[in-house]
Structure prediction request, 102 residues.
Amino acid sequence: MPTTKAVHYGDTASLEPSSASKRAGLEFMLKAKLFEWFTFTENATYTPVAEFFNGAAIPLAPRLTAYTDLTARFPWGLSASSTVRVIGPRDADEERTLTARG
Prediction:
């Protein structure tokens, strides 16, 4: 098992060493062609375990993410789509005292 990993810090645009972490969860993906010209795409992830090996939370690691897309492709070359993206609440600090909303 690794003991450290590099973590990107956006505020300083740098990489800094951090403790090793573990993550476990599920991912679901579905793509359906409802008609010859109309498709539906769904991708959802659920990650109940996202923590450092010492038990502290990984800040801002989402437990739930979802993506849905409907796309219509017309015979004359035009296409249109509608997309929804969702990120669920997540721990904002390692101690799990603050929550960042979607």
